[in-house]
Amino acid sequence: MFGKRVPLIRLFGFEVRFDLSWLILVALIVWTLSAGYFPGAYADLPASTYFWMGVLGAIGLIASIVLHELSHSLVARRFGIEIHGITLFVFGGAAEMTNEPPSPRAEFVMAVAGPVASLVLAAIFYLLRTALDGVGFPAPLVGVLGYLAGINVILAVFNLMPAFPLDGGRMLRAVLWGWRGDLRWATRIAANIGGGFGLALILLGVLNVVGGNLIGGMWYFLIGLFVRAAAASSYQQLMARETLGGVPVSRFMRRDPLTVTPDTRVSELVEAYFLQHYLKLVPVVETGRLLGLVDVRAAKAVPRETWAERRVADIMAPISADNTISPGTDAIKALELIQRTGQSRLLVAEGDHLVGIVALKDMLNALTMRLDFPDLPQSRHGALAGR
Fold this sequence. Notes:
By secondary structure, the chain is α+β, with helices and mostly antiparallel strands. It has helices spanning 22-41, 47-78, 104-134, 139-159, 167-180, 183-210, 214-244, 266-277, 296-300, 312-315, 331-341, 360-372; strands spanning 5-11, 14-19, 83-89, 92-97, 254-255, 281-286, 289-295, 317-318, 324-325, 345-350, 353-359.
């Protein structure tokens, strides 16, 4: 879901970070508030005042989103669910769970914590607005507090919609899961409802734009796209955990990959490996010892006129926990590492001995096959039964 994530702050042991797309969200909120909402609610104020109201409103909204997700994370921790952190992105925020909740009750309580937190925040902002308005505080500040009270009510109500992966959709999944005892079935039903809800938002956005409400229509359309995509992605993630969980990466890796030595010239690397064999990454090995890796990006960064003189040793990346795993590593952990680092391949090694390469596309092929036959049982090795 996310690209490069930048650490922002740490709260109660959880790292809050932001995806670069979050900057788009900040800009959109400031623009929406300063150009539309506040001028409509408070007429005849200077443009600079509307701008600062928009900035303060955006800060308050983002803080509200963080506290909403933090409530999920604190409850998840209580149920023993590992949370990687909280990531802010273009459509809000997400507490990143490493696995599914252990029970329907844990799912329900964790899901309801977010809307409850938003309603508590709404009450706090409303009481502050009322108190400050009563003692004559400036209208812009009172207006921002009023906006934050209202937007937190909207956040709570919107998240209570029974459309997975919204909080209400997770609550619905918990009820269905508890009823049938089948997490996969419950997820499929809740995700289908979520996809339908997303489509409805998209259509509502189009109607608003046609009716002249450009800003509101834009938000409905974008949020609908996100909800629809997230619903499908959430079901796929569950299937990925079922398909890859408990399966070692050695099942998916390619053994005996082509390698180069540190003394290989960059010109030979490009011509004999990248172009001839269509490789994007090549391990660097000398006398049986894995030293590092070299990829297409590293070679492209070298001026072409120096390819004949430069050697792989000059441009290779050393082995590290970000590009190398052991053959017994759970495939889900490998997939998480690939997603976190943005790489498409990982070296598989025992100590400093290379045993293979695992590629994202090979794991995705297994997942695609699983999605084609969702009702067949898993074998004890994680593949489709009967293979």
